[in-house]
Design goal:
298 residues, four-stranded mixed beta sheet, alpha+beta, 11 helices
Length: 298
């Protein structure tokens, strides 16, 4: 069971420094930018890769095989000035399913409101007590979110410490009024809105569901596919309850982007009644995703 031995070290001092917890593939796409100097984007990609993969984001020690696979894809949409940019950031992470070759997505999110400054050959460094760059703050935030989602999938509320760290970063970032993407009031998809949704007391059932979905559902399917599938499908009504929770819209949309196609695949071997019930339930929660759910009607 991944992480169970190492998770115990979350609240203890680590005496030996290991490599970072993430195994990220990073790309920077500057196709939209008409600039004679593309070297800055190569430098940016390299600096992002080092920051994400070499930073020790927590006190947890993971072996090379335990590091979390993820992808950070930055698309630069505008070069405002020599050192100022607007961009979109697409973040994906995944974790293995027990006794299977299958990997399941744990985060699949596109952040469309990223503005930052970067100079060619500038290193990106993370200091927990003072973050002075919006690109660093944003990357650090999503690194913590990846860890939170991953650890929550292996133990009940196992990601709490990482959600708290992400919230600390959001609080710091909000003190910089020129930094985009952190508003807590007028954008329900901001980074602050995301972390507030996950930490809300009323959404604890969602986090319990996230654990059950992965550990009691997916991780059981290699040994007993019917039992694993039934566990997942029977747990889905929690999502309908969460829909009525204030500020849960972003959380549910993140779930839909990450998991709806997987659920459709899981339910493909269910009984006709189970498929219908699953379709009716999910369509009532995610009406905009009816097309994705259509295979359940066959």
């Amino acid at each position: 069971m991944k992480y169970i031995p190492t998770f115990l070290f979350l609240f203890f001092t680590v005496t030996q420094i290991h490599a970072g917890e993430l195994n990220a593939k990073v790309s920077v796409n500057s196709d939209r930018i008409q600039s004679p100097n593309k070297n800055v984007f190569t430098s940016m990609e390299q600096a992002m890769t080092r920051l994400i993969n070499e930073t020790k984001w927590s006190s947890v020690n993971l072996t090379q095989n335990e590091r979390i696979d993820c992808t950070f894809s930055l698309t630069v949409t505008q070069q405002v000035s020599d050192n100022s940019f607007k961009a979109e950031l697409f973040i994906q992470s995944r974790r293995p399913v027990y006794n299977a070759s299958y990997v399941t997505p744990t985060l699949n999110y596109r952040d469309t409101k990223l503005e930052f400054e970067y100079m060619e050959n500038q290193p990106l460094e993370f200091t927990q007590t003072m973050i002075d760059n919006n690109l660093v703050a944003t990357l650090a935030f999503y690194c913590q979110l990846i860890l939170a989602q991953d650890f929550d999938s292996f133990s009940p509320f196992g990601g709490s410490v990482f959600y708290q760290e992400a919230q600390n970063m959001a609080t710091q970032a909000q003190s910089n009024p020129g930094w985009s993407g952190w508003s807590a009031f007028d954008d329900n998809r901001s980074r602050t809105s995301i972390i507030n949704a996950f930490l809300g007391e009323a959404v604890k059932p969602y986090r319990e569901f996230w654990y059950a979905y992965h550990r009691k559902g997916l991780d059981e399917m290699a040994a007993n596919p019917d039992r694993g599938r039934t566990t997942i499908l029977n747990a889905l009504p929690v999502l309908k309850e969460i829909r009525n929770v204030r500020n849960s819209e972003v959380l549910l949309q993140m779930f839909a982007d990450c998991k709806l196609n997987e659920i459709v695949s899981i339910a493909s071997n269910a009984t006709a009644e189970e498929k219908k019930n699953t379709y009716d339930l999910l369509r009532s929660i995610f009406p905009a995703s009816s097309t994705d759910l259509e295979p359940l009607r066959k």
